[in-house]
Specification:
By secondary structure, this protein is mainly beta. It has one domain (2-97). Helix content is 0%, strand content 57%. It has strands at 2-3, 8-16, 19-30, 33-38, 54-58, 61-68, 74-82, 87-91. The strands form two sheets. A four-stranded antiparallel sheet has the order 1-2-3-4, with no helix packed on it. A hairpin with a 2-residue loop joins β3 (19-30) and β4 (33-38). The radius of gyration is 14 Å and the shape is globular. It starts with a strand and ends in a 7-residue tail after the last strand.
Length: 98
């Protein structure tokens, strides 16, 4: 989960009913209610399903790093989700960085 601003936060991946997922939702808080909207579902590319990853929001973009896939393989990839266009882009990491 990553905080977008004072009224919104995002959730990417994790587990749903015992299975890993790569769905991404943004939640808007309004008083005592929450409004959920799926984002990035129409992106041509997207990260594989995963859990135990790290994420952060920076300059209106969500960054997702690593985690474990459905076979418990450790991932070492970096993805960016532009919150305006809702498009995922994989960021290639130099081999010397890991």
């Amino acid at each position: 989960m990553s905080q977008v601003d004072g009224e919104r936060f995002m959730i990417f991946g994790g587990f749903v009913d015992g299975s890993r997922t790569n769905e991404c939702f943004i939640c808007t808080k309004s008083g005592n209610s929450l409004t959920w909207k799926q984002v990035g579902a129409e992106s041509p590319k997207a990260p594989c399903i995963r859990a135990s990853h790290s994420s952060v929001i920076y300059e209106n973009k969500l960054y997702i790093f690593g985690g474990q896939d459905d076979d418990n393989n450790k991932l070492c990839d970096l993805w960016e989700l532009n919150l305006e266009t809702e498009v995922f882009t994989q960021i290639e990491l130099p081999a010397a960085s890991f």
